[in-house]
Amino acid sequence: MTLLRRILLRLLTMAITLIGVAIIVFFVIRVVPGNPIAMMLPPGAGEEDIARLKALYGLDKTIPEQFVIWLNGVLHGDFGTSITSRQPVLKLVLSRLPATLELSIMALVIAVILGGTLALTGTRRRGTRTEGTIDIVNGMALSVPDFLWGLVFILLFGVLWPVFHISGRVSPALDLPFVTNFYLFESVLRLRFDIWADLVSHMFMPALALAIPLAAIISQLLKQSLKETMHLDYVTLSRTKGYGENHVITHEALPNAVLPTLTLIGVQFTFLIGGTVIIERLFSYEGLGNMAIDAVINRDLPLIQGIVILFALIFTVVNLVVDLTYAALNPRLRNG
Amino acid sequence: MADARGLVKRRAGVRLWLSASWLGLLVLAAVFAPLIAPQDPLMQDLFGARLPPFWEAGSDAAFPLGSDSLGRDVLSRIIYGARLALGVALIAGTLTCLIGSFLGLIAGYFRGWPDMVISRLVDIWMAFPPVLFAILLIAVLGTGLSSIIIAIVVIDWTRFARVIRAEAMSQGAMDYVASAQVSGRKRFSIMLAEILPNVLPTIVVLLTLEMGIAVIVEAILSFVNLSISTDQPTWGSMISEGRLSIHQAWWVLVFPLVTLFLTVLSFSQLGEGLKDHFDPVLR
């Protein structure tokens, strides 16, 4: 199978997945009890007003009809209008997306640094007490999900030893000169390191909570692959050439041991992004996930749809990129 | 090498025993809750609100772990909360396991179009953020114990289906299955009689892990106030309330959080311990 065919096949399954997600969400949220129209009207509104508003949001048609209309809109870049804020869904969702992306990427970076360091240390000190400790820490970090780590951090670093902010994305008192919603990125570009520091101090706890389970997975798998690679002949050869143990690990073993970990990171990254939903809620971080929970509570059907589809799109794109990177890095798959 | 194996085995044994003891303790607490809980978990007393735990000044011996902002006893609420947590773990975990494993076996052993349908469904499911999916389902189904259980089953069946499918596929390629097929037995009976016993260890491990996940999902739903009615004590709702009064009464958050932490840790350590136990290399 050539690379091109592989890409086309993946794009096709991606489209099927996205349509499947759209259909499921669309039908599930339309059986939600609780009438969004009733919530919008003042008490005492007549039957006529209700009918008019229903027609305005297309809720008077059958569900399959509504789906076709909605799908047609989506293909033209129109995701409908939010019922609670009366703004276009696409605009609302895109305004929150940068916050969630920055949080997820920061968490990924923390996970890679933390997991990588633990794996390298564990390999350098294999067979010692240090390695045993790392194994135990990994086991614990893997067993406990991000939600609980978040709560633990709120207690430790928000209350007992308040060094980080545990609520919000940025201090409300700060005057933000930004034109995009990528605050963290833009603050660096504008050399506003005061704002950057404030942003990081807000993001660090939720990002760390998201990162810990992934860091443990990285550490475990990378350490295992490194240990296997360290027994290979070419590594022994480079040792006999007189290279130090650190050099052998980082320059000889690591490049060959890192591939399985890279694939795993890709898959696990989608789980991490899924975790932002509850972590954003926990830390009152103004991202997509927090908005999604509000949308469900307010029965804002168009907004829920838009957010779920966007999440599904992100997940499938990440998976596609991982797959293609893996194919490009692994010669056996490139031509096989 | 033999030494290392012994070490791993011993460590696995300790893990198994520690986590099994904690879970056993919880089961006892849940079963005998009315006998051991010092107070009625719902009784409010605004004059006895935010009593600190027993070792701090101003505590009341009748409220060993203190009381919350409505004067309800924290220890009694944790004990009664164990009933719901373990109930959800057991029922939701088992149902998820049955449905997911069955679909996984069908997909992995029969291949063909059942596999196509099931695998495509798994793909679609994996594209949903699970927590958002759960919240959405609860909004649809309404709050309550059965809604939580349904939500967990609907979201998590893929965990079993994916792993069991792969296992059933590799078992299906083995000689013993081929010889069973040659002898003319029905494929469905081969699946249940030959494949199932061989993937059972994996199913048991996954089930243990799933129980821990079910406890967490219930806590997350309680945390966003979407679990069950407010007059039943749950660890998640205690955590949610404790989060709000964290600066005035840390114990309202800390004790249920520690309980939840230990429970989730125990379920997963039990699962890991069982995995090592079933592993023929270590045995």
Descriptive account of the structure:
Chain B: It is found in: Cell membrane. Chain B: It comes from Antarcticimicrobium sediminis. Chain B: One of its GO terms (biological process) is peptide transport. Chain B: Belongs to the binding-protein-dependent transport system permease family. Chain B: InterPro entries: BP-dependent_transpt_permease (IPR050366), MetI-like (IPR000515), MetI-like_sf (IPR035906). The complex is a heterodimer of chains A (336) and B (283). The radius of gyration of chain A is 24 Å and the shape is globular. By secondary structure, chain A is mostly helical. In chain A, helix 5 packs across helix 9, helix 6 (129-143) packs across helix 9 and helix 10 packs across helix 11. Chain A has helices spanning 3-30, 36-40, 47-56, 63-75, 89-124, 129-143, 146-160, 183-189, 193-230, 233-240, 245-282, 288-297, 301-329, 331-335. The model of chain A has no long low-confidence stretch (mean pLDDT 86). Chain A has 14 helices and no strands. By secondary structure, chain B is mainly α. Chain B has one domain (2-37, 65-278): MetI-like fold (Orthogonal Bundle). In chain B, 74% of the residues lie in helices and 0% in strands. Chain B is built from ten helices and no strands. In chain B, helix 3 packs parallel to helix 6 (145-172), helix 5 (130-141) packs across helix 6 and helix 9 (235-244) packs across helix 10 (251-278). Chain B is elongated, with a radius of gyration of 22 Å. The model of chain B has no long low-confidence stretch (mean pLDDT 86). The chains are: A mainly alpha (336), B mainly alpha (283).
Q: Can you give me a brief rundown of this structure?
A:
The complex is a heterodimer of chains A (336) and B (283). Chain A is mainly alpha-helical. In chain A, 76% of the residues lie in helices and 0% in strands.
